[in-house]
Design a protein that fits this description.
The structure is a homodimer of 769-residue chains. By secondary structure, chain A is of the alpha+beta class. Chain A has 20 helices and 33 strands. In chain A, strands 1, 9, 10, 11, 12, 14, 15, 16, 17 and 20 form a ten-stranded antiparallel sheet that branches. In chain A, a hairpin with a 2-residue loop joins strand 7 and strand 8 (97-98). In chain A, helix 5 (358-370) packs antiparallel against helix 6, helix 9 packs across helix 11 (497-520) and helix 18 packs parallel to helix 20. The first copy, chain A, is globular. The interface between A and B is large, with 50 and 49 residues. Chains A, B: InterPro entries: 6-hairpin_glycosidase_sf, 6hp_glycosidase-like_sf, Gal_mutarotase_sf_dom, GH65_N, Glyco_hydro_65_C, Glyco_hydro_65_M, Glyco_hydro_65_N, Malt_Pase/Glycosyl_Hdrlase.
């Protein structure tokens, strides 16, 4: 755990520059707007350790995988988020020497992510090798209003000299992915152009043929006035810059305003991109930097109004949750149902930036409660639109009759993961996708989704389970063999309790939804039956037979559900038996040792208990929590949040608090030594759940929101906003009581500590402790 | 199954040329002498489909592996058998046109592997694009006498023209491995040289730094006389040729004799290689091609005298077994204890040509019975010498106190395999290595090996098992979790019966050998104890505790040993339930489907029953055979032989015969559609076992050889030679009876059909049926 960044409730602050932390800082200070995003690389040249990253949402490259040995059915490609053209670049040359912070003496340096207003600011004061000193003040952001745009204000003050200054703002498409399997470049140049105050580069991805035009327009300000200038083009492959030679005077500020845009062939025909880029740049430069920045602050204020969580009395916890919410909003806005939430968002390349079950299990609840209904709905539609590919994927693995297996990792619906124990066996992801449909309907009450889209997905998933589950003649029960559960520290096990549980739940829920849709709209139901050739009686009989005869492993003696068959054959050690030198076990132990050990990577049985909490009495939950948590090493970023929620539910608020701190400050404090690769975006939604469902005790049951706040002793107060079926609520819990404000024109019934209250429109409810 | 090659008892014959079969033929017609070997590539250029392969034993390259995801403890390198310099090359140019069978009209073509005398012969008659016809007659071999050498006699007859003929014998070191992970070339040039009648290229492998000098010397014959000639050098990178321009007359034969040598820095200092190559070439060219060829025939006659198996009345079976014996002798001669037997020998690159457990489980019995004692002993010493690395390997995986885990695949003792389910979990290989020590001692009676080497290996292996096996508190028994058994169609299973069985056997045998060595040589024993810090009482108590409390899975109902925990939960299908369109399952099914199916790749429980046959009554063997064989798809080349032996033992000689045919003609008939990659060398030893242990019923028990011949109805007679403790026996079984000749100066007691007989020196025993 590192203590590098300053604690501030609304900012992340780096004071002074440590090159060793630069890649971590680049991740943490990332900015984005759901459409584009980037790591906090420097505008000017930097020859030290850096991971360049500019990303355009939805633009990917299917990199040919290379494994030593093939299993039949492995995908040949892994879809990677592409490092796209660098639009922030500003080359600065002082008296013949290129500005490069790796080669200067750094007299002062400060980097600051302003989360309230959504921009990145950097100021520094350096002395170059010639002894010339400059101060730089740089602000940039990805606009939430003009979401194809970014803007930079870069001010240079010569501190102790007058003379030549060359500034070359540029667009550089000659970039690489550091995770490229064949050290190949993924972009080809289509065309480029230069004008006196701008430049344009259009690139096309190899294989996928995505076209992206990146363009800039710039102006220069001296003494608060725009100045005339003449630029000369600097051209290299996929690169174009506009070199401006200036004479500067000691103490006189020169400001470069750089407007940039990324426009993509996903949204416009490729041959219209140049025109579109020019139009966009004309529009924003007309508006001007200051207006854009002001609009950005307004847009973020709007977000925070719905999203913000206030933790009083604990600045670290406060900073942590705001950072998580900020990054989630930067990553996905829900405007485009072709997009999704990669594990690293726009903060790094790792994991390919594709879609995992994280979206359904962790992110959907966040967007349900903090954004318009369509945002979560678009996440669901993303999967609906990929149903054909999920059916094709299942077919590759030997399933038929429209059975669907959603991919473990995907960009466009095709599987692009290739470890057999995950790709083929971590099939519980199908369950999370069904659960998200249930969760969405439960939360929003929008049952039309089931009729129009949901049931079709549910039947396809249930068909998969009905084929994947087999009959054990010896047991006279159904079993599910050869799976990997959420705890990826077990592979190819039989009867993973979680997977068996969610599979049977999927079939039960599918039966319920069939009944509901038949009642609601028999015409649409019949159309679906015929579209997917659903043999209702035969197929539902099969579902029912499995539901009634499924085997669920359990241990009589300890009264817990068994993670899988044979779990009690393991040496029953606890994490507390492990010397710290052996941890994290995934870095210290060989894989076989991890597998045969009792140690658990992330919630598995407990994930099921979290999902289906209502089925279990508190004793059962406690027995399982007390059994599994001490065996859990939490080596997945998705682990602490579920444990925080369960600990809070069981009243162990201090343990919940420890889990919360770990999850909320995972990246700021670089807990897992891997923030340099990018931030853990999807687990940030888990952090939100830890606060709202854990300390806020929020649940939805029978169309009603309920709360049961329970605060750690470190917190004076906790407040958050929740949107629910057209109502915006603000809840504030402190030592005295709970205050719930209804900030809407509609009354609502809620449950607080199991008691029902009505909160009228625009009024509040206060319940003393 | 293909029927491409002609059936002949002593030859493999290809009549006519089918380019589609060329890579298969290149594998099948491979030649070698244990020190070097090569695929049956053409001497002249060939632009069609071919897999170039020249190999020098023990020379390998650690190719950096590239997998999508790393598990802790994976090796970074995979040691590959190197495609070395092409020494056979003879470029032929007729009237300006390069001879290339892919571009000629082929009027006649015949390729023939003479197994009796150990050479490859090829004759063809072609018409080139200009209409010029030539006949070629080419013979080549890798000398068994001069084992660093090969020689070629290449005769060209212009059939319908007189004119220019250019012949360029060459050495080409600019070769690639088709399985290179990074399309990298593995050799660097050190130096090269040309003389009028020869050429020399010295190369060095990257990383490993092996030096290999490949050199040639040639002469030309016209009208049965050597002719004078002038050659001009042709030089390219790592290539050197000697171009000779000739005028030929219609019908007049021109013969090129090419002598070649590979000398390696494994045997001489790198700077002495050039001199050594020149000396060797001088020696063999002095001798002359005809003498070398005659010596080759004598050397092979000597081999066949000890090795041959004669099957009368069944030419296909005869050809099959001879081909297997021939290839085994070409691959490993036992002269050098640094060498071993790669799964493809010198016939292809696949599997890296390294050492697998195949050596101990399948090859040791063959060499024990058919070669001098030192040959099997050298195979054992190979592992002894790598014990330190096996201990280091185990340490990487978390074991200590001198526990050894031999690598799954190796060239020099370090692990170079990287699929976690195999590398880390297919640990039964350790058992086979211990079993080979037992087998060697049982066969040879050489107990000094135990004292000097064997016990040290056995203790290290038992230490591994004692740590790998864990205590199940719930069962109150020892268990072994997370293994892959011989049946690789199951991964990461608990309590594989075979692995549990051989592990416990290892500990039992180690205890026995400890007692024996203590009695035989307490001084050496004490030295060993101190060398390896063996805490005898504590450690043997642990072994004994495990032996007495080990859990072995079994199914009460069917009375069979269970392949692993949970096996009866599978859908109990039989191979006969599988439509042929679904087979082989490893090409038709995804990996997860294979894993959760009941289908077995190769003998697993039955491998254990084969090894420890004496422990089980015939009913038990039959029950297990009847249960497992119908579930076995035999998709490993190592599967049919063990089943043949068990079927023969159980009296089902016709089923045994079917297994035998499949294993013995696997490559000739390209059963598995993969002979183009190379021949299945190690399974060839299994074929030998199928004949001698299966149909011959040979066993060794209590220092006595026993036989119980049982012939398939297709065979008139079966005879084979067996060397046993200084005695050479020839056994011949036919419809009338069994004739055993003792061809040695020493009498021997043998068992025939469970009755004891004495066979005097140089006499014979005939027992009528």
């Amino acid at each position: 755990m590192k203590d590098y960044f300053k604690v501030d409730e609304w900012k992340i602050i780096e004071e002074g520059f440590d090159p060793l932390y630069n890649k971590i800082a680049e991740s943490v200070f990332s900015i984005g707007n759901g459409r584009m995003g980037q790591r906090a690389n420097f505008e000017e040249a930097y020859s030290g350790e850096t991971l360049q990253g500019n990303y355009v949402a939805g633009v990917y490259y299917p990199d040919k995988t290379r494994v030593g040995w093939w299993k039949n059915g492995y995908p040949e490609y892994f879809a990677k988020v592409l490092n796209a053209a660098n639009w922030i670049g500003i080359d600065v040359n002082i008296g013949g020497e290129q500005l490069d912070l790796a080669k200067c003496e750094i007299l002062a340096f400060r980097r600051e992510l302003n989360m309230r207003e959504g921009y990145l600011k950097r100021t520094f004061h350096v002395r170059n090798e010639q002894g010339k000193e400059i101060k730089v003040d740089a602000i940039r952001f990805c606009s939430m209003v003009d979401d194809e745009c970014g803007a930079i204000r870069y001010t240079i003050i010569p501190v102790n000299f007058s003379g030549d200054l060359i500034i070359t703002p540029f667009i550089d498409g000659d970039v690489v992915n550091t995770d490229a399997n064949y050290d190949e470049k993924f972009w080809d140049e289509v065309k480029k152009d230069h004008s006196n105050d701008g430049a344009f580069v259009q690139l096309r991805t190899k294989k996928t043929g995505f076209g992206v035009a990146t363009a800039m327009k710039f102006s220069l300000i001296k003494n608060e006035s725009f100045i005339e200038f003449t630029s000369s083009p600097v051209e290299k492959e996929k690169y174009i810059g506009a070199e401006v030679k200036l004479q500067v005077k000691e103490g006189e500020a020169i400001t470069l305003i750089k407007y940039a845009t990324n426009v993509s062939s996903q949204n416009y025909p490729a041959d219209a991109l140049e025109k579109r880029a020019a139009d966009v740049l004309a529009h924003i430069s007309q508006k001007g930097f200051d207006t854009m920045l002001a609009e950005q602050a307004v847009a973020w204020a709007q977000k925070w109004k719905h999203n913000d969580i206030i933790i009083e009395g604990d600045a670290k916890a406060q900073q942590g949750i705001r950072f998580n919410i900020f990054q989630l909003n930067q990553t996905y806005t829900g405007e485009d149902d072709r997009l999704n939430i990669g594990p690293k968002g726009f903060t790094g390349e790792k994991y390919g930036g594709s879609t995992y079950w994280d979206t359904e299990a962790y992110c959907v609840p966040f967007y349900l409660a903090t954004a318009e209904q369509k945002v979560a709905r678009n996440l669901l539609l993303y999967r609906y639109k990929q149903l054909d590919k999920a059916i094709a994927n299942a077919k590759l693995l030997g399933f038929n009759n429209g059975a669907a297996l959603y991919p473990m990792v995907t960009m466009d619906g095709t599987e692009c993961h290739n470890e057999w124990e995950i790709t083929f066996e971590e099939i519980h992801r199908n369950g999370a996708i069904a659960f998200a449909i249930y969760n969405y309907t439960r939360y929003t009450g929008d049952e039309s989704y089931l009729t129009d889209y949901g049931l079709e997905v549910l039947i396809a998933i249930s068909r998969f389970w009905a084929q994947r589950i087999t009959w054990s003649a010896q047991r006279q029960q159904y079993v599910m063999l050869g799976v990997t559960g959420p705890n990826e520290y077990e592979n190819n096990v039989n009867n993973n309790w979680y997977t068996n549980t969610i599979a049977v739940w999927c079939m039960q829920y599918t039966l319920e939804v069939i009944d509901k849709v038949k009642q609601d709209d028999i015409v649409k139901y019949n159309a679906l039956v015929s579209k997917i050739n659903f043999k209702e009686t035969v197929e539902t009989d099969k579902f029912k037979d499995i539901i009634s005869k499924m085997y669920f492993p359990a241990d009589e003696e300890s009264g817990v559900f068994l993670q899988q068959d044979g779990f009690m054959d393991k040496e029953q050690l606890l994490v507390s038996d492990l010397p710290s030198s052996e941890r994290p076990i995934n870095q210290k132990w060989s894989w076989d040792r991890i597998l045969r050990s009792v140690f658990i990577k992330q919630a598995d049985v407990l994930q099921g208990i979290y999902f289906f909490e209502d089925r279990f009495d508190e004793d059962t939950i406690r027995r399982n929590y007390d059994f599994y948590e001490p065996r859990t090493v939490h080596e997945s970023s998705l682990s602490p949040c579920v444990h925080a929620i369960l600990a809070a539910k069981l009243g162990d608020v201090e343990r919940a608090y420890q889990f919360y701190l770990r999850t909320s400050r995972l990246d700021i404090d670089d807990y897992n030594n891997d923030t340099e690769d990018g931030c853990h975006i999807t687990s940030m939604a888990g952090t939100w759940m830890a606060v709202v469902e854990g300390f806020g005790g929020m649940r939805v049951k029978d169309d009603t929101l309920s709360f049961a706040p329970l605060l750690p002793k470190e917190w004076r107060a906790l407040s958050f906003q929740i949107g629910f079926r057209g109502v915006l609520l603000n809840l504030k819990a402190d030592k005295i009581g709970v205050l719930i404000k209804n900030i809407s024109e509609q009354s609502i019934d809620i449950m607080l500590y199991n008691i029902k209250y009505k909160v009228d429109a625009n009024s509040e409810l206060f319940i003393k402790n």
